[in-house]
Write a structure and sequence with these properties.
Mean pLDDT: 87
Order of helices and strands: EEEHHEHEHEEHEHEHEHHE
Strand order of the largest sheet: 6-5-4-7-8-11-10
CATH superfamily: Vaccinia Virus protein VP39
Largest sheet: 7 strands, mixed
Radius of gyration: 19 Å
Number of strands: 11
Shape: globular
Bound molecules: zinc ion
Helix content: 25-40%
Number of domains: 1
CATH topology: Rossmann fold
């Protein structure tokens, strides 16, 4: 148990505190503040902070939450459990990285925030990016990276001053922004380290997706790790508020194994365990499905006018 006081959060778009309607009351106790709960890809367990929707701009956030320094500590101690899904994630995110080519951006320096074991950085190298850098708070995850990737992973949270300004051509974030206690601070830092004309590729959950609406509080996206949850309306508003030019927002299609999808289903334990056992057998094991399952993809750019030093 990690004793700490919860503190109120502000809407990351309009900056108001309070002024929000409760979506779900808190469903956790202090024991939930453990590294195991904050580890990647664990089974959803319906533990979450109180969730509210801002009355002014519609952004969904957890309120109140544990202090960021406690959350950062939990992520640093968390372990890495993507297992066999890493290949599917690499396929999914690799497809979106390819989409950036239509903007004729040079394949220069790429930064991934929350890179886990670096599977996507491998894909960026395969797509001929000039250099790769990953930021990952979990020591366990970073140490699982391949020998050719590990030297390019900075074991830290993405914090102000970690990199020099105008350092990167491309910044990628996959299922990261919804975990960040202060997303405006993160996007301000992205703006600073991104070169003018550079692009951000961001994929995360969609709280307004049909699946999230049907499942409500039982949806796996309603989770203690998610300090914010975005929609096709609020995600571009957040990027615009941080000074980015939003180029595209669309549902993201991800490739999954049936086993992974079944893990997310809310159903009684014994039935679920039986289903998981079945899906571990052939031919289900080798199956792949690509579906638009409750994720949004956003591409945003830093305009040439945002060049640091130009006012
Ligand atoms: Zn708001």
């Amino acid at each position: 148990m990690m004793p700490c006081e919860l503190y109120p959060t502000r809407c990351a778009i309009c900056g108001t505190e309070g002024n929000a309607a409760e979506l779900y009351p808190a469903g956790f106790n202090m024991d939930a503040l453990s590294p195991a709960v904050f580890s990647a890809r664990r089974m959803p367990d319906r533990i979450h902070f109180r969730m509210v929707r801002c009355n002014r701009c519609g952004l969904v956030r957890s309120d109140p939450i544990a202090p960021p320094q406690i959350l950062n500590h939990l992520y640093a101690q968390s372990t890495f459990e993507y297992g066999e899904e890493a290949d599917n994630l690499k396929r999914s995110y690799g497809r979106y990285l390819k989409k950036l080519e239509k903007y004729s951006l040079r394949k220069g320096a790429l930064l991934e925030i929350g890179c886990g074991n670096g599977f996507f950085l491998e894909e960026a190298l395969r797509q001929k990016y000039g250099s790769i850098t990953g930021v990952e708070p979990s020591v366990d995850a970073a140490n699982r990276a391949g020998a050719n990737i590990r030297p390019w992973i900075v074991c830290d949270i993405m914090r102000p001053g970690l990199f020099p300004e105008n350092r990167f051509d491309t910044i990628c974030m996959f299922q990261v922004l919804d975990h960040i206690p202060d997303p405006r601070l993160l996007l301000d830092e992205c703006m600073r380290v991104l070169r003018p004309g550079g692009l951000v590729l961001c994929i995360n959950h969609n709280i307004d997706a049909v699946s999230a609406k049907i499942l409500g509080e039982r949806s796996p996206v309603v989770d203690i790790e998610h300090t914010y949850l975005y929609s096709p309306k609020t995600l571009p508003r957040l990027f615009s508020a941080a000074g980015f030019t939003v180029l595209e927002t669309e549902p993201a299609w991800n490739t999954y194994s049936p086993l992974y999808l079944a893990r997310l289903l809310p159903m009684p334990g014994p039935i679920k365990n039986g289903l998981l056992r079945l899906l571990r057998t052939w031919p289900f094991r080798s199956m792949r499905v690509t579906v638009p399952l409750g994720n949004i993809c956003l591409i945003a750019g830093k305009s040439e006018r945002n060049h640091a030093g130009v006012t």
